[in-house]
Write a structure and sequence with these properties.
8-stranded mixed beta sheet, alpha/beta, 6 helices, 20% helix, single chain, 3-stranded antiparallel beta sheet
Length: 232
């Protein structure tokens, strides 16, 4: 099956529809599938629900879709650095489901493994636990969280081979692999596509069985918070 497409628009062709549920990789400004997000913006697809650690910043990442009012709901663990995200949430324009970071990552991974739900201690006794099933194991209380099963996964990796085996760099490995796993269809953008057999099997972070479509492109290297020492 051919997996390599010429650009983001072509890779998303036939996959987008209003009201769909998308799982997106990225952590802060690292590992954001920016080319695919731009293509979704250009397509005008609306009423979207996103499961993503955060929404980037106002003019980058999912933030560009917040500006165009294409996002209906965010399932996230962090909403800082994005003034439009905060404004829409506080004004009631945007639905928000808060998840602890580890819980969100595990919900994605569970969905990718076909696990409909799991128990965790994280959030017990807080507003996170409200309305959720509680169960005791060995004298400790846990809450049940549901696995995430998205219509589409969009992620960014560093390298891929022609069959879709992926290698991530550094922090980009945090949410991209579980996000890639939990979608019915997974579309990936990478910095480099290499011939099959080039990657060391022990260095592959996500096997190509999860990847359906693949593009190569140029990416912007942003720094979320630049911190420097005072000049001597």
């Amino acid at each position: 099956m051919k997996k390599i497409y010429p650009n983001a628009t072509a890779a998303l062709d036939g996959l987008l529809h209003d009201g769909m549920f998308i799982a997106a990789g990225g952590f802060g400004l690292c590992g954001i599938p920016e080319l695919l997000l731009d293509a979704i913006k250009d397509a005008g697809t609306k009423d979207l629900t996103f499961a993503s650690n955060n929404a980037g910043v106002d003019d980058f990442g999912i933030g560009i879709l917040l500006q165009t009012r294409q996002v209906k709901k965010m399932i996230s663990s962090y909403v800082g650095e994005n003034a439009e995200f905060m404004r829409q949430y506080l004004s009631g324009e945007l639905e928000l489901e808060f998840n602890p970071q580890g819980t969100l990552a595990e919900r994605m991974r569970a969905g990718g493994c076909g696990i409909p739900g799991f128990y965790t201690k994280t959030g017990v006794g807080t507003v996170i636990a409200e309305g959720k099933e509680h169960k005791d194991f060995n004298g400790e209380t846990y809450i049940m969280e549901e696995g995430i099963f998205a219509d589409l996964s969009i992620v960014k990796a560093w390298k891929a081979d022609e069959t879709g085996n992926l290698v991530f760099r550094k922090t980009a490995r945090n949410f991209n692999p579980p996000a890639a796993m939990c979608g019915k269809v997974c579309v990936v953008e990478v910095e480099e596509i290499v011939p099959t057999g080039t990657l060391d099997p022990d260095s592959i972070h996500l096997p190509g069985i999860y990847v359906h479509r693949l593009i190569q492109g140029e990416h912007e290297k942003r720094i979320e918070q630049r911190t420097t020492r005072p000049a001597a």
